[in-house]
Structures are given as C-alpha cells and as structure tokens.
Batch of 2 targets.
Target 1
Amino acid sequence: MRRPIVVGNWKMNTLLSEASQLVAKLRDNLAGVTEVEVGVCPPFVYLPAVNEALKGSNIGLGAQNVYFQEKGAFTGEVSAAMLKDVGCKYVIIGHSERRTIMAENDDIINKKLKAVLGKGLIPIFCIGETLEQRQEGITERIIRSQIDAGLDGITSDDIAKTVIAYEPVWAIGTGKNATPQQAQEVHLFIRKLIAHITSDIIARDIQIIYGGSVKAENAQDILSQSDIDGALVGGASLDAEAFTRIVQSAKR
Ligand code: PGA
C-alpha cells in the first residue's frame, strides 16, 4: 500500500532563527507519527542547520531546487551531490514558480530529474495546468505533455522512486484550492499515464501528491481521495500547528 507523504515547501521564507524554531516545534508535534512520511524543504542556506536539528527525528530534509550539472563553473548553482552531502533526501523539481519566474522548461526539468535520481535522491516532480489551460479544457493534454517530457529517458525503476506532485498553477498561493473531485480526477489520470509508460504495479505504488492552498481546514477532504497520497504544502507549512494538522489528516 502507498504510504502517505506530506512535504513542506518553505519557499523563500524564514530567517535562520525562525527556521530553527519551526523545526523544533515540528519535531515535538510529529514525534509519534510513523504512518505518514514527512519532509521539509527550507531555503538552501539553512539545509545544514535544519539537517542538524532534524537528527534522530522521522522528518526528512529536502531542497527546493537543484542544478543538473555535476560541478564546475555554474555560478550560483547547487548540485545534487551537494544536496546529498548536506543530508537531503528529497528535491522539489519543476515547481510552477521555477517554470514561470525562472523560465525552466521541460528539458531542464528532465535533466534535473535525471541528476537527482542519479544521486539516489527522491525527486518531487511538480506538474500542473494554468487557469487558462483549465478553462480551455486542455488540462489533460498539458499534464500528459509535462509527464512525457519530464520523464523522457528515465527508467521505470527510477520513475517508481519519484514522487509526483499535481499542483494546479491557479491554486498555488491563491487560497483557491482544487475541489477534492477535481484533484482526484487529475490524480487518477496521472496514475493511468504512469501505468502506460511503466507498469500497472509501478502506477499502483507511485506516490502522487496534491499541492495548491492545502490548509489544515481543507486537508482532510483532499487527502481522503483514493488517488491522493499526500500533499506538498507551501504557506501552511510555515505554521507548525497547521502543518501538523495536515500531516495528521494524511493518515489512512
Ligand atoms: P501553497 O503552495 O500551499 O502556498 O499554495 C503550494 C506549493 O507551491 O507547493
């Protein structure tokens, strides 16, 4: 059975003292929780400090981005090996903010997925349609093209290790979450696509999580859908109590 997973994407938030306080509270709140896989993705600069603060807990460390090259003259970039070296388990790839603000395309995202999988890290591969695309009725076409291009040339074994995050762009940071039914429909569609490119067993076992204005108040409804295996949480992950409630809601 798929284990639920809830990951906090802190984005460009927190100073070091706030990051430390947040982690300390999460450690306390989530000490007994084993049924749900939990991760936090602080800004790059706090990864070593947060890693230290998480030692001995069941919360995994993740990064919000990575560069696909191994090393060299790439000013300002961070490699998968470096992320692994400072204790990361997860790396968010293809987040819509990176696709739009930083102009990342499917080709770059594909290279990043390969780089991360090559180092034994778990990618959290984000996909999702914009509001215009949903209104035009081309959500499935967009999802299919993001999956096909993002996972191009990646083996079934590696796809099986990937967490897919469905994040409708119109729901991110807007307070407008997809209805549980809207999200479930797309999750089921993604699972079918994965079955088509890998196998029924991999599709059955792959973790597909939802992101976009997940809050303590709506988590239960969203996370109770049969093909929604957890959440990628932005804003609410900065509030230890709210994030804890979301994790509790993910228990099956
Ligand atoms: P949000 O962000 O929860 O603030 O909408 C989700 C995300 O960007 O992963």
Target 2
Amino acid sequence: MASSELHFLLVPLVAQGHIIPMVDLARLIASRGARVTIVTTPVNAARNRAAVDSAKRAGLDVGLVELPFPGPQLGLPEGMENADQMVDRGMYLKFFEAIWKMAEPLEQYLRALPRRPDCLIADACNPWTAGVCASVGIPARLVLHCPSAYFLLAVHNLSAHGVYDRVGDDEMEPFEVPDFPVRAVGNKATFRGFFQWPGVEKEHRDVLHAEATADGLLLNTSRGLEGVFVDAYAAALGRKTWAVGPTCASLGADDADAMAGRGNRAEVDAGVITAWLDARPPESVLYISFGSIAQLPAKQVTELALGLEASGRPFIWAIKEAKSDAAVKALLNSEDGGGFEERVRDRGLLVRGWAPQVTILSHRATGGFLTHCGWNATLEAIAHGVPALTWPSFADQFCSERLLVDVLRVGVRSGVKVPAMNVPEEAQGVQVASGDVEKAVAELMDGGEEGAARRARAKELAKEARKAMEEGGASCSDLEDMIRYVSELSRKRSHERGTSSTPVPSAAAAELGSKKGEKIEADAALSVQS
Ligand code: UDP
C-alpha cells in the first residue's frame, strides 16, 4: 500500500501537553504522504487550528475533526474541555469520565466514514479507543506515550517489582528504582505513575490493557537521548516500539507560524516577543514557564519574583497566576506604582497567560529555561540547546528533572523536593526562597567553567535531536518503519476481513471540522454508510 493511500486517525488526550505533540506527529506522518485526521473537541480544535492550518499551507493532508465533549452530560460546565481548565481538582474524576464517554461519538463518526482509516493512534491516556477500534474494525491500533521513556520504565519497574505495593500510602518512603539503567532514588510522591490515584483504578486498568494489546507503541523521544530506557521499556512490554521524537525538533527556522501557533493563541504576540528578544544579547535571557497546568501558590510566586529581581538578568515570565490569583495581581502592580512589573520593566517581560514557548526557546537571546519539566518543555529545551533550571511540580516532571540533571547533565536543580500537594501547610507552598532562586539563576546563566560545559552539552544534544529527526536519522527511520508496518498490517488485516481497502479521494474524505462545509461532508458520509 502506498503511503498516499494510508489514512491515520489521531486521538490525543484533551490536554495541551498531549495535543501539541500529537499535532507534531500528524505533520510528520503527513509529510510522508499519508492522510492524517486529528480527532478532538471543539475548544481544542479551535486552539490548535492555527498549527493545523500552517501544515495545510505547507501542502500536507492534515485535517481536524470535532466531536462533542460529553462533559455537560456529567455536570461539567459547557466549554470545559481541556485539563488546563480544571481549576478544581475535584472535577478530575468527572473530566476523565467524560473523556471515556467520547467512545460513543467517535464510533458514530467512524461508522459514518465511507472507508475505515487504516490506523488509529491514541494517546496512552485514551484507552477507550481500543474498544472502538475493535468494534469498527480499524486494521491497526497504536499507542502514543507523551512522557519520557525514563518515566515509563521507572513506573513499570516499580509496579512490576511490587515497590508501590510495599510503600502503600506512604508517599515519602525512599526507594531506589529496581532493575533500572541508572541509579534513581525517590519516593512515591515523585515517581507516581499516571492514573495512580484513588478513584481511577478502572481507568488505570484500561490504560494498561490498551497498551498491552496495541499493535505498537510510539514514544516522543529519541534513541540518542533515551536509548537505554526505550530499549528496556520495549523489552519489558514486548511490543513493537518506535522512538519518533523529539517531535518538536522537526520545526525549523522556516516554521515561525507553526511555532507561534502551537497549542493556543499567545497572550502577547510572537512578533512583539521576538522584537523584545532581538534587542537582547545572545544567551542572556531566562525564560520562565510552568506549562499549561501547574500553578504556584502566591507566596512562592513572590519568592520567585524577588529572586528574579535580585538576579539582575533579563527574563520573560509566562505567569498564568496573574490571571487567577488576586495576591499575584497585587504583587505585580501595586497602587503606588512600585509593583514588581514596574521595578523590572527595563528587563522583565511578563506574559499573563499563554506564551509562544518555542518561539522564545528558539531565539538566540534565550540562554536559560526555568521549567516545570513537563516532557514537552523538556524536549523543547533540549531541541533548542537551552540549559534548564528545573522546578518540577507533579506527575512525570520529577523524572524529567532527574533525566535533565543527572543523566543528560544539562540542568540545575532549583531545590524543589516534592509536589506542591506534599508541602507541609506551615510552608504556605514555598519550597524555594528568593535567595536560592537568585543563586540557582546565577549558576545556570553563568556558572563559570561548569556552566560553559553544561551549555556546550545542551548545544550538542540539540544538534543530535535535530539530526535524529532528519532524513536518515534514527527517529526519522523509526517513523518511516512505523508507516511501513501500518501499511502492511492494514493490507493484511483488510484482506483477512474481506473489507474493501479502496481509498476514497482525499478531498472527498470526511474531514469533520468547525467549518460548515466539513460538517456537511460528515453528514454525507453518514448517509453513504446507512
Ligand atoms: N506551552 C506554550 N505556552 C505556554 C505554556 C505551555 O506554548 O504558555 C506549551 C509548551 O511549549 C508545551 C506544552 O504547552 O509544548 C506543555 O506541555 P508540557 O509537557 O511541557 O507541560 P504540561 O502543560 O503538560 O504540564
């Protein structure tokens, strides 16, 4: 089967850190000639339309399909469709329940298509897609993991060796990860796997089962970065595994639009930020972001602000808390005009919400990244050769910190020890005092010989990451191998089932989107089927 006849359906988890790499993956698969449709909900489609449109302008056959989000049926507010909108932790159970319910509209959509897609690639956190694939008869089903291979392997080994069972509810009991390629010490609080929370036990079992029965696994990493972890994880799961990342490293200097439009509309225009950075010396600016979900308590924001001020260095701070936290608003702008923003105005740029992160990291003036160590942020730092000041908050972020600092040696620790929820109440959420922020920033941005060696390693890793994504590179070869594998599997299974694999012309293919014409096509597809 020629790749131009292949149709991939991609189903990301509705969270920024999962949709963004899936959109990258869509672009990469489509650039090999296949047709790709990304399935998500209206709010998430609107946020990612700019990135998809830029792929279309580049001539790629990538489409967006909108499925209704079942949240309101379960009492979630209309329009709440992304993990970054969960202001109240109590909403998470309902949020995941709603995600699982997306199986119904997905199945309906698939049954309405004139021809089944050849392959469905689902985020590992969307295991409900497995039942849909079986019921509709999608020839190939792959799982995309969005965290690091380091994290996946650690969680797998901790489970397999009974370490989680042994420590039980004691989140702080120290342990070493068994049978691991490097020495890794921590506790349950900093090695907690996805869905390892009370109340989502069934969801957790679903995730494990969908992965164990998938036709293969995709990892957003490269063998150059994480080879030993990738190989050990593939061996442990016994599934065919492709390392196809870092997907963000495939964006080049010509992709300014795609970079600026990643994930959401930026609160401050990318052009304004680029002009601000253009006026600064190379590698002088520190960029600060805690990703799409993590928020610091106001007291910790204050300590960070004072530390940045004392550091005397230029910075860009994506400060989401400025939107939602009255104490943070007051810190930034006091009535007498002596607020933080005014005091640092000659060298500090505040972005009160979504920042064009990759535009910032790819600019030559950016020399450091104070990051929460989300896996995408970690890969974006690596892909652009920017050393990291690590400030993890929850989930896999403590593992990304260990990888950056202990394994790849391109990071400096801020001193955060546990997730915010494990900080004793009397600390009021503060884990890093202003003086420690100031010291850590100096170490990262200057740091003498050691700092220079760290920067040199970061640049080397960036070169390797880009090479991996280029023609002939390891991740590029893995991607092409995956496409070949899917092509063969689809042909074989379609033949076995006696189903037609006659492709419909690409333009006529149902690409349901927010545009009216696209909706009509879906309706037409529905009537063809019935
Ligand atoms: N991101 C961005 N601007 C922001 C915040 C986040 O572009 O202001 C992007 C970031 O580049 C990354 C993704 O959102 O691609 C966040 O994923 P990550 O894994 O880093 O963290 P999460 O948000 O899942 O905690």
